[in-house]
Amino acid sequence: MIQFMLLFSRQGKLRLQKWFTAQTEKSKKKMSRELISQILIRKPKMSSFLEWKDLKIVYKRVCELDIIFNFEKAYFMLDELLLGGELQETSKKNVLKAIAAQDLLQEEETPQGFFEDAGLG
Amino acid sequence: MSIKILTDTTISSLSQLFLLIPSHLKMLGGALSFSQLKKSPQRPPPNPGPPVAARPASNYSKNPLTNHGLALSYTNMPAVRGDGMRGLAVFISDIRNCKSKEAEVKRINKELANIRSKFKGDKTLDGYQKKKYVCKLLFIFLLGHDIDFGHMEAVNLLSSNKYTEKQIGYLFISVLISQNSDLINLINQSIKNDLSSRNPVHISLALQCIANIGSKDMAEVFAPDIPKLLVSGDTLDVVKQSAALCLLRLFRTDPSIIPGGEWTSRIIHLLNDQHMGVVTAASSLIDALVKKNPDEYKGCVPLAVSRLSRIVTASYQDFQDYTYYFVPAPWLSVKLLRLLQNYAAPEDPGVRGRLNECLETILNKAQEPPKSKKVQHSNAKNSVLFEAISLIIHNDSEPNLLVRACNQLGQFLSHRETNLRYLALESMCLLATSEFSHEAVKKHQETVINALKTERDVSVRQRAVDLLYAMCDRSNSEDIVLEMLTYLETADYSIREEMVLKVAILAEKYATDYKWYVDVILNLIRLAGDYVSEEVWYRVIQIVINRDDVQGYAAKTVFEALQAPACHENMVKVGGYILGEFGNLIAGDQRSSPAVQFRLLHSKYHLCSSSTRALLLTTYVKFINLFPEIKEQIQKVLSQDSNLRNADAELQQRASEYLQLSNVTSLDVLATVLEEMPPFPEKESSGLLNLLKKKRPGRVPENPEIKSGEEGGSSKPQAIISGGIPPPSAGNGGASADLLGLGFDGGNGDAGGSSSSMNGNGISADQPTDNLKKFYCKNNGILYENEIVQIGVKTECKANLARLALFYGNKTSTPFINFQPIVTCSPELATALVLQVKTVDSTVEAGAQFQQMVNLECVADFTSQPDLNVSFMNSGLPYKVSCKIPISINKFMEATEMNGDSFFSRWKNLSMPQQESQKIFKGSLPMDPTQTKTKLIGYGFSLLENVDPNPENFVCAGIVHTRSLQIGCLLRLEPNSQAHMYRLTVRSSKDSVAQHMCEVLADQF
Lengths: 121, 1005
Prior knowledge:
Number of domains of chain B: 8
Oligomer: heterodimer
Radius of gyration of chain B: 39 Å
CATH topology of chain A: Beta-Lactamase
Number of helices of chain A: 4
Number of strands of chain B: 18
Number of strands of chain A: 6
Distance between the termini of chain B: 90 Å
Structural class of chain B: alpha+beta
Helix content of chain A: 40-55%
Radius of gyration of chain A: 18 Å
């Protein structure tokens, strides 16, 4: 099973983290810190694998993904894709369908304009 | 640039994970460019750039929360449709624009104060506001700050009717609720309500939350509900998927929650579900259940094979939603292939045939031209291929498939994609363990060695090392060890220790010439001394001590190695130890005369740690024995203040005791005390292997011929009974601290034992001494001696196994030639006692001593003893020495403690006449109770105190171990000091044993 999933920037900022086994906050921080520095020093042509402690790390460089806004959506989507450290749904269409359904609910439920007018947001 | 990491503890799932990444990220991208997604939900654009904020600046400045004078840029503001929690977006934007860490903290503290006041305020917050603030708190937490409030508000959101509020509530508690929270009951109640909701999206949220937290009490509370959801006909497919993985998570928390009986079959049959997503989720669950209970779930094999077959033979158009870059259902294929690796190849010919067809098809497809140039296509295709190869290797039953797999991997070994080279090396490592493909793998040796030299990625080089280790056998061991040594010089620090262990294991395993082995280990120390753990250098010393053919060479080689101006401390240790034992073998050469050896070692002394110095002090005292001519020189060193008054107690003690020893004892006594180390218990290097496994848990490549534990030892020439003999005592075996017997109570203690017997016997030069009788009550000492030859014995016993070391000493000044010690058993003895005798060199140099190992196993009780006939030529004259090997049934006896009551009840139980043997005899030695006790204990009995009403009498108990039988033995010895007579009674469950013991012991007092 997948133990955890991290997404972080080239500057080492953690953007998304998902832990599929119980970990203390302290050990999460320690592990991500160590891993981020280990991964960042690896050169582009290297393989996507890193053997680290008793874990096998699989990583990939990707283009800028601005998930800091709507970060909660990233988590919702991740729950559709991966659950309990296992792949739940591999059909792109089905995952998007589930997310689209959530969005629809959101639109229906949200009162428009009220908060904007109050300037509170 | 962002980087995404996934981890997996199991290697085989790698390809699966690897495959996962690209599509997954695309989807995330899709999620974020929200509006675009909706227009074409099936095809998110490949590069979703950050959407541009549409909000006018004037509006923004109205927000009291953001009005803190920082320059703001809005270009990163997301477009929001519907509500999108604008306040949250503003807050995030603020944070992103903070120029410093301090500014960020300031902004966050301000926000926290605001939220706190909102939560505490009189005005009741509506759901939307709660959701927004809870989400802000979550964001702050994810930035790495502590959050100590808001939990209650999040729990309140769980019972909201609005999906989005519920969803945020669940997200918050999934991330932030500690398992022993006071709120857990409230949370569980909300989850329970949602699980039984009619709205499937609510059920899904509840299931995902359970799967994310997966606590013990959730396992208790929800375990009964989830299996029902999983198999019910009313459940939506998407809910079933979550239910399957939720159940898996709870099963991992508490394996007892899985219902058995009819549920088994219903769960297995999820593999037949029409919905591919359900099958995908369920196959992970089934895989875990199978691992726990393979028999109960073995019905999944034909279902998995037929499912796989349908996928593999399908065209990519057949599974529209589940086809990924022209590969039909790659993730599910991989899961099914892994599921099948829990079982041996199917026995049913139909299922087996079908599976082999699938595997062939997958191998065939690998040869087809790619349907797309995209990396996703080749990733998906290769993931399935690698998993298929894993299954082929696992089944290890189809030579044809194995060879094809090997050829396929061979192609990948020189592929331009680093990932493929990595995975090929990894899979080939497994392939090397199969007898069908071991030879085929060896064809790639050059390529693998080349990978070691040229790969730029340590991950790949490490795989190459593993593969070389796995493919190593007797035919290529010299090349491979040499290449690994060469690589060691430049190897990454992170893998050096592991490499040292591998080289040491291979060199020992495949050494035909132990000189080569010694060279390899010394090279290891030279090249990577810091990474040579003590287990490794202990081992080379053990081997040198046990193999007389290599001792002279080892002495010469370490002497040369020590010449280097800067040599590693481990080299000093090995050098010191070996010269202390065998320095005499090179002392004839003026260039390595005793004084030169000593000066060389002592020149390193002051640079060494105290543990090394302690070892060197022992070497020095051994030198006093080996080389009396440098005694004074050494005594001077021992008596230096820096040793005699060293702050380190161990050094101080060694220096003063060794000095004293060399002052007060005669040469003879010194010679015995400082005798050459007795051989170490023979064993394979499983200690090193275990160490290697500890270094890399779960990831040690197998070398098919090297196994840890009992299996080893069968292929080693001249080795010991296969299976080996357990070390006789803690002090002598394993990698314990006293392994080398450097302590005062270590190996030399035994030699001390033989010295007392030697002096006590008053050996005369003309009368041959035969001490056979004495060996009934002792294990070590001189067995036979005349003016030419001395034969010593050391015995170690454990249960029904024994090891005897016979020491032959040439007392003359000319060598023994054609030296042949022959051990024989009478035919009748041969059935009761299994002997294995190590062969020895036919020449014994003048003044030299060497040992011969004899391993024995007691199959049944016996009374006679094996014959030892030694013949040799000395100064042109033939000699023959005949004596008995001092092994007797009592050597296999274990002393047994018991109280008076159980002694007498056992005594009564052995009341049949033939079970008792009695003798009344006149003592031939002075009656000395202490001597008597020593003999009875030496014979192997435990002496039971306060059992016999008459304190003069002795009662004893013991159990004799044979291969199949344990024989209880009880003894009573009644001395009559006035008449100088004894009455001896032995009772045993085996009459022959009682009789034999009675006869032998009657001759001892």
